[in-house]
Amino acid sequence: MNHIVKNILAIVVGFLIGSIVNIGLVNLGMALVPLPEGADVSTMDGVRESMKLLTPINFVFPFLAHALGTLAGAYTAARMAASFQMLIALGIGLFFLMGGIMMVVMCGGPIWFIASDLLLAYLPMSFLGAILARKKNPLTPEQHDPS
Hints:
The chain is mainly α and 147 residues long. The chain contains six helices and no strands.
């Protein structure tokens, strides 16, 4: 397969895997950590208004969703890419970071969450995903020296 086509496919699949992990963790968090009384997250206006009712525990799963979604997407993309694995993984992180910035602009949130989310969940996780995806070249039997 052509390297360019393989890299484009890696980006698309990485984005999809990252998005699925993100959405799955957000939904899991909503099921495991109940919203405070009076919180309405069915609309953007409701989310914005509910921010002042949320406690730190309500932000754990969104942070995990952003971090692990980015990690999974970057790892997948870097693992599948034919070349430029680190650049592609960081591109996935940058794309998810732009989504995080858009959510901050639309919804707001506590400063501690915004700072930790934007600084720790996206680019560092995409870098880690690329590192973890590095393909190891196992030694062939001829290269193995048992001594």
